[in-house]
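Researcher: Structure prediction, please.
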Amino acid sequence: MTFGDGVKYKTLEDTASVELGKRVTKSEIETNPGLYPVWHGGERPMGYINKTNCPPNTVLVANTGSIGYINWINIDSWCSDAASKVIAKKDIINSRFLYHFLKSKEFKIKKYRRIGGVPTLELRKLKSFPIPLPPLPVQEEIVRILDHFTELTAELTAELTARKQ
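Model: Predicted structure follows.
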């Protein structure tokens, strides 16, 4: 599909593998401590375990709790069932480009909440989310610019915090 901007779009499911993480309990983490962070859908890991199910350079989308929160994982990790792993098909899309795009649409993805009992993310809607597909070199340049901008923002924030103290 193509929108008015001339860029081709495909669904998230056509550009990446979208898989629900695997359940892990607090007691399992406590009895199997390790180096790998356990992501449960938030900004910080809920602990560390001795096994992985999530490769580096993966986008995570929170399914429960902070539904729709988009996170970037750059090391081997464990993804719990409170999040979905979004692993880019590298011949189609740059994984970091996919992260930046989904992060920019986080407010929209958060609306894919299914209410009834425990609110959860509606994966069917997430999988059908339209993703723009400029050529890979263009994606890489966009990533370079956005990552640099993110770096500068962090430096400025640190500088402002230090000056306030």
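Model: The mean pLDDT is 92.
Researcher: Thanks, that helps.
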